[in-house]
Amino acid sequence: MQYSQKVLDHFMKPHNVGKIENPDAEATEGSPACGDQVSIQMKVNPETQVIEDIKFQSYGCASNIATGSIITDMAKGKTIIEAKEISWKQAAEELDGLPPVKIHCSVLAVDTLRKAIKDYEVKHNLAEVEKFNKDTIVEELKKVIYPQVGEDIVTLKMVKYAGFEEGVAVIDLEIPKFDKYRENIAEEIREHLEQYKEIKEVKITM
Amino acid sequence: MKKYYFDNCKTTQPAPEVIEAMLPYLKDKFIFPANFVLGGSEAAYELEGFKKIIADSIGAKAEEIHFTASGTLANNIAIKGFLSENAKHGTHIILSVIDYPDLLTNAAFFEKSGFEITYLQTDDQGFIDLEQLKDSLRSDTIMFLTTFVNHTVGSIQPIKKIREILDSADHKIVMHVDAGQAYGKLPIDVNELGIDLMSFSAHKIHGPQGVGALFQRKGVVLGSVIHGINRLDNHQTGAVSMANIAGFAKAVEFTFADFENNVNHLRELSNYLLQKIENTIPYTLLNGPRGAGRAPHNVNISFDFIEGEAIMLMLDIAGISVATSSACASEGLKANYILMAMGRNHEQSHSSMKFTLSRYNTKEEIDYTVEKLAEIVQELRRRSPLYKEEK
What is the spatial distance between Cα B350 and Cα B328, in angstroms, rounded to a whole number? Predict the structure, then answer.
């Protein structure tokens, strides 16, 4: 498995690294426990809603740093409406592809960007804080990538059941017994769901 | 670009004299050992000589040495061979949570077929819990497995003390030792240490890849694991490479010819590397013991606020090969099981870098490496949201 030259270029000399003083919006996603965390800060023009400056910091591997670099490049100069539409697939394509096992880095970078935009929208009364419901769980599961193929577990139909009752999120997965990524996927699901205060417990069966 | 190789735990560069010793067996001397025919007798004679060289290096007899295609095969032949043959005497085995994957996966295999396994815990330095070992001995315990030098943090398990504890049982408990990282780095006398079965391999001591050895104490009975024609060894049936065995023997010869000097060289280099890192780079944490309890060639150290795969890749681009225990660089994207068992947290595990040295490394190489490492760590910390300058 190899990184593309573009990933290596962005890893060795990333663009937009650092912090912005008095940012208009910011977000941090991921966790050091899972080995990757990205923070994004940005300045948005209140008239045009164009992202005029954007910076990131990354705790993580080469692809994590490279995706932070490319996603901030892509978002810079776009309106927040346009930037929201950037998908992890586009970010990965901009980098001339990522190894399947590293696709989750791209998902994390896009997720952080969207959270930062959401932060801006909420602060400026352009949107409300999202209410948690059952669909939220499925939306979060769509961010969990199966490292073997680099697609999310919902698209791959690996989620047999996802429910929520009295504070307990119940997820039933179909993963082969000896799959080396079983633990990793369960850990990622927990990381995504435990951030919601509504969820007191995550029960995963496989 | 000059290459700086510090991943000798994984494999080592074959020594020129090793390659030289192998060549005749890749050319004219290709005949397998056999009776009555000239070439075959010569091969048989030479094979015995190679066995003796390796046996002498661990205080064993030539007939107690078996050649295998790798250290992993030696582990499989020892564990599967012993347990399948001796299950009638008991079905309880003991090993630790920090053992080499070969041992853990073999134990898991037998657990599925009805054996009971006790997994010993480790302390924060990578030494297994001997009190727990004492408490775990049972009348049906037949085998104890251990990794002499831990492959991740370099802790040296006290084999002699372990033997004494095993001997306190009222029956014989066979001890199998994976000596992959210990062989050639520590003096090993299988009789003095009371080792019954031991695996090791050539490519960790500048020999060729593709050949290992199993020490099987006389009287310890192993069932057949690999069935087939007996060419060179009754355990590892089929064709084992004579060239590899010749290279192995040569590597053993020169490793033990100046054993003390070589070990002192490794110890001096690893102390130098560790000191230099600790004096140059803030917020580091040594994983594993300091001093005599640590193998002479291993330095495993965590760098706060950053992640190991990124460090490894940047070092690689600078021509420096090292290993990391980061989940990002691991097969199943999992935190390192040894560091986690020792009580390290995820960040410390993800940021751990392992430098393993060989006789070919020099102080000058270390100077260059630490200089590059310091730049890389500083740059990655600048990019990290976890790092605060004022700290």
Answer: 8
CB contact B129 to A (< 8 Å)? no
ipTM of predicted assembly, 2 dp: 0.83
Distance of CA B32 to the CA centre of its chain: 29
Minimal CA separation from B61 to chain A, in Å: 41
Mean pLDDT, residues B270-278: 98
Q: Are residues B172 and B146 in the same domain?
A: yes
B332, B335, B385 ranked by CB distance to A59: nearest: B385
Residues A50, A52, A55: CA angle, nearest 5 degrees: 125
- Cβ atoms of A54 and A70 within 8 Å: the answer is no
The per-residue pLDDT for range B50-68, each reduced to its tens digit, is 999 999 999 999 999 999 9
**Interface contact B309, partner A, CB < 8 A:** yes
- What was the pLDDT predicted at A106? 87
Domains of chain A: 5-123 (3.90.1010.10), 134-205 (3.30.300.130)
Cα Rg of chain B, angstroms: 22
Spell out which residues of chain A touch residue B328, defining contact as CB-CB under 8 Å.
Answer: 35-36, 60-61, 64
CB neighbours of residue A33 within 10 Å: 17
| A10 within 8 A of A64, measured Cβ to Cβ | no
Mean pLDDT of B122-150: 98
Say which residue the tokens 């008239």 belong to.
A47
Decide the pairing of beta strands B116-120 and B92-96. parallel
Do B57 and B104 lie in one domain? The reply is yes
The whole-number pLDDT of residue B331 equals 67
Residues B37, B181 within the same domain: yes
d(CA A113, CA A54): 10
Residues spanned by the domain of B80: 16-257
Of the candidates B355, B329, B382, the one whose C-alpha atom is nearest the C-alpha of residue A3 is B329
Q: What is the CATH number of the domain that holds B53?
A: 3.40.640.10
Please give the full DSSP string across B212-236, using - where no structure is assigned. EEEEE-TT-----SS-S-BSS-SSS
Q: List residues bridging with B354 in a β-sheet.
A: B300, B323
Q: Quick check: is B285 in a domain? A: yes
Compute the nearest-CA separation of A4 from chain B (Å).
13
Residues B39 and B164 in one domain: yes
CB contact under 8 A, B350 and A32: yes
DSSP assignment of B127-176, as one string? -B-HHHHHHH--TTEEEEEEESB-TTT-BBP-HHHHHHHHHTSSS--EEE
Q: Per the CB < 8 Å rule, is B309 touching A57?
A: no
Whether B307 sits inside 8 A of A60 (CB atoms) is yes
Q: Which residues of A touch B335 (CB under 8 A)?
A: 35
Q: Which of A60-69, B226-235, B273-282, B358-367 has the least mean pLDDT?
A: B226-235
> Are the C-beta atoms of B252 and B205 separated by less than 8 Å?
yes
B28 vs A177: CA distance, rounded Å: 50
Mutating which of A8, A26, A40, A59 best tests the B interface, going by the most B Cβ atoms within 10 A?
Answer: A59
**Which residue from B178, B106, B120, B193 is spatially nearest to B147, judged by alpha carbons?**
B178
**pLDDT tens-digit map of B88-103:** 999 999 999 999 999 9
Three-state SS at B197: strand
